[in-house]
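Dear Dr. L.,

I hope this message finds you well. Following up on our conversation about the binding site, I have prepared a predicted three-dimensional model of the protein together with flavin mononucleotide. For your records, I am including the exact sequence and ligand specification that went into the calculation, followed by the structure tokens. Please feel free to forward this to your student if that is useful.
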Amino acid sequence: MSPLRPRPPAPRTPVAPDAVRAAARYWTTGVAVLTARDGDEVFAKTVSSFTTLSLDPPLVSVAVAAHSPLAAAVRADGRYAVSVLAADQQGVGRRFATPGAGRALGMFTTVPMHTEVTGAPVLDHCLAWFDCRLKAVLPGGDHALLIGEVLAADGRPGEPLLYHDGQYRQLTAQHAMTSTGAHA
Ligand SMILES: Cc1cc2nc3c(=O)[nH]c(=O)nc-3n(C[C@H](O)[C@H](O)[C@H](O)COP(=O)(O)O)c2cc1C
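The resulting structure of the complex is given below.
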């Protein structure tokens, strides 16, 4: 960081991926699992790029590796779900971040899931879920930004699973802020 000086010319080239990675690790997020089906196959991937995009109409977004089998399944089937993980679901987060582990025939045997409205798999015992119909796919470099119309959603109070500085973490009561924010 340096004091404000007259504006230097803007650099002409973007930073290297490692520079973005080095900064982005300090952006604290929740942890969710993106799920979809395509024919007999089911797909799941741990994601932190989930965002509630719009309330009216109800839209959510998530960025997924553009050339992943899951992205292909969402494009083909047009339906998917996002399940927000609870603090005690760290094992599920790790599993679906493991290369090759997020694909199965029929259903995942060790991670129970069910369906809600669209037929996309929703994780049992998650903190919240969003059941979506694909509305648009925007190009985002090596990722694709999935924009989904929320057809059903629900949540329950509980400890969320967090991710910060390359580690899974959880909130603690001592760290809760007492004032409420302006954004409800
Ligand atoms: C906390 C966390 C958040 C992640 N967020 C995303 C994400 O938003 N989008 C994505 O495509 N991959 C994300 N990943 C990476 C994928 O989970 C991981 O690369 C993928 O599941 C590896 O399996 P595959 O190679 O079989 O696809 C995240 C990983 C972790 C640990």
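In brief: Residues 37 and 93 are 19 Å apart (CA to CA).

With kind regards,
A. P.
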